[in-house]
Write a structure and sequence with these properties.
72% of the residues lie in helices and 0% in strands. It has 85 residues and is mainly α. It has a domain at 35-85. The protein starts with 5 loop residues before the first helix and ends in a 7-residue tail after the last helix.
């Protein structure tokens, strides 16, 4: 079986890991996220969120609404201090 997009997929995954790690390092330095959060946690969560939006929402508008709700929930769980504290 051949996967002609495999090099591009590898490139995109590398870019995602790099950007995710950079953002997470900055968030850790600012004390904005839980100290135990690692890139190995963050990147799959981001990918899972994108996948969940695709399968749980219908129209483009629905996907935007769903993505915002899911992202808000995810970010709330990643914060070093809960938003209502």
């Amino acid at each position: 079986m051949s996967y002609p997009d495999a090099p591009r997929t590898t490139e995109l995954k590398t870019s995602l890991w790099s950007a995710g790690t950079t953002l997470l390092d900055r968030a850790h330095a600012a004390g904005a996220v839980r100290p135990d959060l690692t890139p190995a946690d963050l990147v799959p969560l981001m990918c899972g969120l994108a996948y969940a939006v695709q399968i749980h929402a219908g129209t483009s508008t629905d996907r935007i609404t769903t993505a915002r709700r899911y992202l808000s929930t995810l970010l709330g769980g990643l914060r070093a201090t809960p938003p209502d504290a």
